[in-house]
Amino acid sequence: MATRSCSCVFLLVLVAFQSTMMKANIIIPSFQCRPVLASTRENFEFAVNLHIYKAQLFMLSSIGRGINDISPGLVEGPAPIGATIANLDNRTRNFVEESGLASIGHIRAIADMTVLKTPFPMPQLDLRAQVFAKFFDVINVTLKPPFNVYANTNSFLFAAVYASYFLEQLYAGIIPSIIGNRERELAAEIALYEGASYGVIRSLLNDRANLTVPPYTATVGNVTNLTAQVGNQLGGCGVKDEGLIVPLSLGAENRTTTNVIPADDNSLPYKRSALEILRILFISGNATRPGGVFPRGVEGTLYQLFLALKQS
Q: Which residues form a coiled coil (predicted)?
């Protein structure tokens, strides 16, 4: 009975949140939404943090092995906290492993084709289920039992989809500022891969749109709407994430409500800056207040600049 009751509250809050953008219990500061000025080195340094996050999450959740188990000496730093092998169906597990392995290749390519060298410093990652559950706290929703991202395929896909999406959004934004033909080509190639990876995971979610997310009664489609709203609120720079079903006004050419791949008015990918991404992954709405999956912040000069200038 407790689960049914909580699920009903969950759905009511979802509907209310979609229509009114409820205020969170997190204080959201004034946001900087203009592109972040950074050098090519600083951009790739920052990107490595996201590649490490994706690689560790995907590899540890699919086969229980991390980056240095596959490519020794590529990174160095503290072991992730709370990584767990997820209860995935074989099709999803195989793709998650494949995409995780590809992320390791991307990290190596950055070392081979830029001035950055291995081993890359690895930020502390907190991959415990309760950390991912905190995203629901942004809209004051308490689920019983607490959301467990590792419990089943439908739950895990919500974590997996953003690991690729943030990389796609970051590269889409920084490619014009990358100096050097080889470096710009590398950024474009990674962006293409991450866009494809994101598309695969969104397709997996779309295939399950009308299925529930156990043990709750909310459907996958409903939860994509919810997580999109949470990301947009924390990111603070408008709509850059959308659910699987949208109003015609948000659909491609305003002619469809199907929305497997979110995009802007011209069906071009949304861009997010490093500041926006950190606001979301820190689950604080503030790029200088670490938390979430990066409890100690991230590595690199760009993040240290954010801290020094108090850019949030």
A: none
The Cα–Cα gap between 228 and 308 comes to 30
For residues 21-28, average pLDDT: 41
Residue 70 has pLDDT above 80, yes or no: yes
Distance between CA atoms of 301 and 312, rounded to whole angstroms?
15
Token readout for 147 is 């959301």
Q: How far apart are CA 151 and CA 210, in angstroms?
A: 18
309/99 Cα distance (integer angstroms): 35
**Chain CA centroid to CA 307, Å:** 22
pLDDT over threshold 90, residue 27: no
| Among 60, 63, 97, 99, CA closest to 80 | 60
- What is residue 284's predicted lDDT score, i.e. its pLDDT? 95
Residues near 207 by Cβ (< 8 Å), separated by ≥ 6? none
In the prediction, which pLDDT does 34 show?
87
Cα dihedral 19, 23, 24, 30 in deg (nearest 10): 120
Per the listing, tokens 């802007």 go with 264
How many residues in the chain?
312
| Three-class secondary structure of residue 81 per DSSP | strand
pTM for this model (two decimals): 0.90
Mean pLDDT of the region 109-128: 95
How far is it, in rounded angstroms, from Cα 155 to Cα 149? 5
Rounded to whole angstroms, how far apart are CA atoms 83 and 128? Answer: 6
Strands 120-121 and 75-76: parallel
CB 242 within 8 Å of CB 230: no
- Overall average pLDDT of the 257-282 stretch: 96
Give the three-state DSSP class for 107.
Answer: helix
Amino acid at 165: Y
Is 60 exceeded by the pLDDT of residue 22? Answer: no
